[in-house]
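REVIEWER CHECKLIST
Item 1: Sequence provided? yes
Item 2: Single chain? yes
Item 3: Sequence as submitted:
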Amino acid sequence: MKKWPAILLFLTLIALAVATPAQAQQLRDAARERQEQRLEKERLAGQFYRSQEWEKAASLYQELYQQFNSQHYFSYYLNCLIQLSDFEEAEKQLKAEIGKNPGSANFMVDLGYIYQLQGAQRKAERLFAKIIKNLVPERNRIAITANAFRSRNYDDYALQVYNFGSEQPLVDYPFYLEKAGLYQYQGDYNLAFDNYLYQLDYQPQHIDLIKSRLQSVLRMDIDNSMTDLLRAKLLQKAQQSPDNMLYGELLIWFSLQQKDYDIALIQAKALDRRQGDREIQILDLADISMNNQAYDIALDGFEYVRSKGKNSIYYVQSVVGLLQAKYLIEQQKNTSDKGVYTALASTIEDTFEELGFNTEVYPLVLTLARVYTYELARPDKAVALLEKALKLPLNPVDASFIKLQLADIYLYKNEVWEATLLYSQIEKRLGDEPIGHEARFRNARLRYYIGEFE
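Item 4: Structure as written out by the authors:
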């Protein structure tokens, strides 16, 4: 029966080939009319289905299935019969389909479902056992059968199918991802995590997919129990298999998700000691930590890279980050000891002597200017430093940050017109950038306070 649409199409093409132009047009018109009738009947059936007019929907889907032999139509027809509690007719139709398609797992699982709806639990269980017993050791058939069980929420039977398939040499596929998804759906997160990690061993290239799946689990974690479980498993895996870099990478990723920056940094340093090529990752972690006010952890990361010496291509970046972190730590502690800031300023000045006053050390210019102005009460020295920095070949955004800080310092010195001039310059040059918006806001606020707000 499944061959009839293809045969009809073939005969239609032959007819078109030998027909006169007028006859060919008639055939095309007839085919178009049949398609329009099909679409209209399908639309009407869908409308009845959505409005739960099951008898009308069942009649139309039965007609569509008989005409076009589409599994799609049969599924809707069967669901209508179930909604009507016409289990006898559903059983009859399914047995007829199984007779035409003896190996169809979908029809057999649906038949077992009908048995259960009729209260014939043992009959359903015997049928399901038969399905599993007669499984063909072929990956696609295993997947289809498991999906048939899953479609009716028979997850335990689906797991039996996956377990059978994973044990077959001819299948040669472990179904870790599929089992992990099932365990996750069942709420067995221990086995779900295990199977996701098995998949990582089996196909390391799936690490991004594994991250995505794990993240979907953690979104449902309301009491941190799943987070704690996964953390324990990742730590155990990383310790048991120190040479498997994937577990280290996954642990770093997980730690960042949880804002456990210290664990992420420890793991990154451990990987670097084994491979010797993780400096950029450690610097990134240090930057992330610093942006999240974890300044001590940031300092640790920058210091680790700096300690590798001046021959490292990341030496300058690590020194700059290190000094920024030191300043932020003192700010976080609300340190008021001028001796601390005098020593820090001296260190930054020495760094300029060592590394040169150039664009690479530009962030330290901003830090030192703040130290001069707000901690050592030497704003004139800060102004001179920033004006010197403006002579460097900076990109427009970096130059605007210098001007923004310079404007703030002029305002601190009560040189209002110099401040508003610089704010206006930034706004004019980078009005659509975030720094342009910030300059506009500060300028408007300043003008308001000096009585020029319009």
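Item 5: Key structural point noted by reviewer: The CA atoms of residues 98 and 125 lie 17 Å apart.
Item 6: Recommendation: ____
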